[in-house]
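Our preliminary data section would be incomplete without showing what the modeling component actually yields. Below, a chain of 496 amino acids is followed by its predicted structure, encoded as tokens that our downstream tools consume directly.
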Amino acid sequence: MTSATSPRPAPARTRTLARWAGPVLGLIVALLAPEELPPAARRALGAATWMVIWWITECVPILATSLLPLVLFPLLGVASTAQAAAPYANELVFLFLAGFLLAAGLERWSCHVRIAYRLLALVGLTSRRAVLAVMLATACISMWISNTATAAMMYPIALAIAALFPHGEAGADVRAALMLGVAYAASIGGMGTMIGTPPNLVVAGALKELAGRPVSFIDFMGLGMPMVLLLLPICWVILVFVCFRQASRLGEGGNALVRERLAALGPVRGGEARMFAIFGLVALAWIFREPKPLGAVTLPGLTQLLPGLSDTAVGVAAAVALFLVPGTTREGEHRPLLTWSEARLIPWDVLLFFGGGLSLAAALEAQGLTSWLGRGLAGLAGAPPVLIYLGLALAVVVLSELASNLAVATMMMPIAAALGRSLGQPPELLMLVAGFAASAGFALPIATPPNAIVFGSGAITVRQMARAGVLLDLAAVAVIAAVIALLGPVLLGVHR
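Predicted structure:
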């Protein structure tokens, strides 16, 4: 799950300028907006401009910007306080909260570390296979745990493995590929599940609010997992066969390192075993919540027994269980799997960011601004859908290199929905394109926290990251457009 915060704060002078630019440009936009728009719509457009500038520049904490709808919308006559506040309690906010709490439990009991070492030992640690192993481990963990935390956990492992390779040009190439593999796999893995990264939750919420099309956890995986399965090998090929082609051999020391660290963890028992059990059960419940037709056979779903069961209910039930189920630490201490002092450390500001984005999207929709924005793009009507998807994905990827992924996804949802309606395309598909593309920023250290983490290690240069990242950006644009074009209509039941 991608962090909502920027890895490196902007200089104080830049932040001060952006703080003034938000309300000033918002006022200018409201005053100069087309007269065809009603007064309330022009004021809503100005408020949106203010929020977007503050979100993108992060000149104030995202928590403060995310609360602006509760102040601005009632004062400007855009929406009542109750209307502005309702999206903050969207059920997906609580699904996201459940995902954060599950991730905190996995980290508390070191489940993620065991998963990483097991995958490394499974794939092998010889030459290019070491890069593949690290990437597989990183992506697998990142589907459920913060991208930032995953990268922070995996890059020391990657550095330790890299140190075992001989020095020289070949060894340098392997070390660069390992470090970039951690950063890129952390972002790619987050695309796989609805709770994998904040932009995914933004898309899911916007699909329900703006397109009237709720998407289930398993439906989202049906789109996200193909992207992961395609982008991971493409990324690996780019790293080890295109950008860093010098191969090297890793001796027995690499396997010994993994075996040693895995042995130090001991057997799975106590609280770790119970944490794995709860995590496995909630994953199965998400997958089998609804009946699954398999040709002539249909697998039963939990909703046949509990018709009101939702993905949010499953996730929150598991999160509550963490505070109730006891576990035993390696030191013999009996305690709950998760305590409130540990739960307090999850990124609560992201939850409010999500609510603020939904509130802004709802206000723009209610004031007719999304339709107005879409009509301005009607000149694209008649273009093949895949070209529309490619153009939109490319624009969002470029923007995500310079701004918070979460801010870009939030800003693009109403625009993508309006674009779809104006072009006669299902808005759901364009919103999915924009949402997934917001997670694909690979070329610059400032694009994502995982990029910044591995760059901060000093093992790679900006030039190395840009060279591999631009190629991966282009590959991501193509994969996102292709997957949405081919699978989106089938999984979501929409027709072009």
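The first strand starts at residue 292 and ends at 294. Residues 462-492 form the longest helix (31 residues). Preliminary results of this kind motivate Aim 1 of the renewal.
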